[in-house]
Each structure stands twice: as structure tokens, then as C-alpha cells.
Design a protein that fits this description.
single chain; 118 residues; mainly alpha; flat
């Protein structure tokens, strides 16, 4: 029974065409990552507050993606693409989360007193 479920799962996942990620979405993800990473670095350097740096950097990438899609959709008469907005936001979320995990953790070095005797 387990083998039959695995075969069906593999069969149905190969039929999905929603797995395709366009090059433009990859660029939006990268832009959101860069915007969020830069914002996190600046805010954390000024405030030393990880929560504030996380939320500001996440908001900056989301705002950048939203403003770009508003510009595309309503000002230059293109279309508002929610997929690109999601890609930019996910790039920002990835950078913010990664930096929040790894920034600010300092390893404390324990000093051992060693007596040097001749």
C-alpha cells in the first residue's frame, strides 16, 4: 500500500505546472533580499534591536515590491502582478529571518588562567 501511495504521489507531482518560477520572479526575489538585507544592517547598526531591524527590513522590501507593482499596474498601464509582489516579499522575509538568526550572537570566550612556571 505504501508503494502505491508513493507512485501516485510521484505521478501527480509531475503533472503540476505551477512549479515554474520565471526569471523575473527570481529577480524580484533577489531585489527583495538585497533591500531587506541592507535595511536590516542599517537599522541594527543604529539601534542594536533585532526585532526592530527585522520588522523595518521586512516592511521595506514589502513596500518596495508594492510600490513597484502599483507603478507597473496603474501608472504605466501594465498589470498588477501579485506573483512579483509575493516574490519580492518572500525575498525580504528570507533575508530578514536569516539575519535575525545569525546577527548579534556573540560567543563568550572563557579565559583560563594558565600559570607559566619555569
Amino acid at each position: 500500500m505504501k508503494h502505491l501511495i508513493v507512485v501516485f504521489a510521484l505521478f501527480f507531482t509531475s503533472l503540476c505546472s505551477a512549479q515554474f518560477i520565471s526569471d523575473d520572479d527570481k529577480l524580484h526575489f533577489g531585489a527583495g533580499f538585497l533591500i531587506s538585507g541592507g535595511t536590516y544592517s542599517i537599522v541594527y547598526a543604529k539601534t542594536k534591536n533585532k526585532k526592530k531591524a527585522f520588522w523595518y527590513s521586512f516592511a521595506a522590501s514589502t513596500l518596495a515590491g508594492l510600490s513597484k507593482e502599483i507603478y507597473d499596474g496603474y501608472i504605466i498601464e501594465g498589470r498588477f502582478d501579485t506573483g512579483e509582489l509575493v516574490a519580492t516579499t518572500l525575498g525580504g522575509l528570507t533575508a530578514s529571518t536569516t539575519l535575525e538568526i545569525f546577527v548579534g550572537k556573540k560567543k563568550s570566550k572563557k579565559r583560563r588562567n594558565i600559570a607559566l612556571v619555569n
